[in-house]
Amino acid sequence: MLGLKLPTDPRWVNIVEKNIEEILTDHAFCEQKATSTAISLIVSFPEYTELVQEMTALVKEEMSHFKMVHDKIIERGWVLGRDRRDDYVIQLVRFFPKGGSRTTQLVHRLLYAALIEARSCERFRLLSEALQDKELATFYRNLMVSEANHYTMFLGFARKYGNKKEVDAKWQQLLEYEAEIMSNLGNTEAIHG
Ligand SMILES: [Fe+2]
Ligand SMILES: [Fe+2]
After folding, report:
1. Contact partners, residue 67, CB within 8 Å, separation at least 6
2. Got the DSSP string for 1-63?
3. Which ligand is nearest to the CA of 151?
4. Nearest bound ligand to CA 30?
5. Is the pLDDT score of 98 beyond 70?
6. Does 189 have pLDDT greater than 90?
7. How far is the CA of 182 from the centre of ligand 2 (A)?
8. Considering the domain boundaries, does residue 81 fall inside one?
9. Which of 76, 91, 101, 149 is the most buried (most CB within 10 A)?
């Protein structure tokens, strides 16, 4: 349903499980970055009224996810650490050439956002199915549903604002490229690591 070309190696969960503090720290900042992306889309594309409305709602939702993760960190007696570098996202956003019309730039940003949501959703599903810590598994199950909805929303906006045929072709190319990036990942305790 997510269209991803390369599933995560299930052994990634074993790595994560050994360092829950690290995954929660990385995850908290993923939620913060999702909030920042939504704000940035509002600032860059204010004339897209429906997008602005949805991004306003998304800012609240992603920030509430941040709080949920932060609460988990506090419950376990930890303090939120510094932001982690997300090499996956850094590599992903190099795919489309810079420039082009405003619509093209918007479409590219929406496709990146859709893919990051899709991969997060896939990772959360794995955690929800395989974590020994059942409380955390349920936590990830609920978040998985939210991120699946975000994936659908971002891809829907890309198809609505861009030329549907072109958008679908770009989406397929981006999925292929993402699979290449993922083939070198799956070995650290990071949401996209
Ligand atoms: Fe989220
Ligand atoms: Fe999200």
Report:
1. none
2. ----SSPPPTTHHHHHHT-HHHHHHHHHHHHHHHHHHHHHHHHH-TT-HHHHHHHHHHHHHHH
3. 2
4. 1
5. yes
6. no
7. 19
8. yes
9. 91
What is the rounded average pLDDT of the residues 63-84? 97
CA of 126 to the centre of ligand 1 (A): 16
* Ligand that comes closest to the CA of residue 114: 2
Q: How large is the average pLDDT for residues 89-94?
A: 96
How much distance in Å is there from the Cα of 163 to the middle of ligand 1? 28
Give residue 39 CA to ligand 1 midpoint distance, Å.
Answer: 14
Domain that includes residue 76, residue range: 10-184
Residue 186: per-residue pLDDT = 79
- What domain count does the chain have? 1
Instruction: Measure 31 CA to ligand 1 centroid, in angstroms.
Output: 5
- Average of per-residue pLDDT across 104-110: 98
Average pLDDT over the chain, rounded to an integer: 96
3-state helix, strand, coil in the chain (%, to 5): 75, 0, 25
Q: What pLDDT score was predicted for residue 168?
A: 98
Residue 2 domain flag: no
Nearest to 154 by CA among 106, 99, 122: 106
Is residue 70 assigned to a domain? yes
Domain membership of residue 3 (yes or no) is no
Q: Is the pLDDT assigned to residue 1 strictly greater than 90? A: no
Q: Which pLDDT band holds residue 71 (cuts at 50, 70, 90)?
A: very high
